[in-house]
Request: fold
Amino acid sequence: MDSSDNILTSLMVLTYCLIGACLGSFASAIAYRIAHQKSWIVDRDSSGGRQPARSFCPSCHHQLSVLDLIPVLSWVCLGGKCRYCKAKISGRYPLIEMVGAIFMVGLFYAGGGAVSLLAFVITLPFALAFILLLLQRSRPPFYVYGLFFSNIFILLYALIWGSKNV
Reply:
C-alpha cells in the first residue's frame, strides 16, 4: 500500500466518521421529538402553517444556528451549555454522535457495498433513536423497531458477507 492509498483511506474514514456523527445528531433530534410527541418532519407555526422541523434548545426553545449543530465540536466549544440560555446540555448528545461515527467507520472497514451503505445510512439514525428512546424509558413507535432491526441486519450482512461482495 503506497502513501496515496493511505491518504485516500484516511479521507474515506474521515468522511464516514463525519457522516456517522451527523446521523447520530439526527438520531438525537428524532428521539427527542418522538419522546415529546412532536413530528420530526414538520412543525406548525403560530398561524397554523407548516414548516420544516428545526433543532432547538430543549430549555429555552431557541432555534439553533448552523454553528450550534456541528456534531461533538459544538458541544465541546460551548462547554456543554446552550449558547443562548446557558442551560446544561446532556453529554448523551455528543456520545450518540460519536457512536454514529464509530458505526459508520465500522461499516467502512466491514467492506459493505453501495447498497449496504445506503441502507445503513437510512436506518442508522432510527436505530440510534431506538436506543435513546429505550434509555429514556419512552416507547418507540413500531416503525422505529423495524428500522432498528433492519439496521442490525444490514450491519451483520456487511460484517459477514460485505468484503466478499466489494
Q: What stands out?
A: Residues 3-164 form one domain.
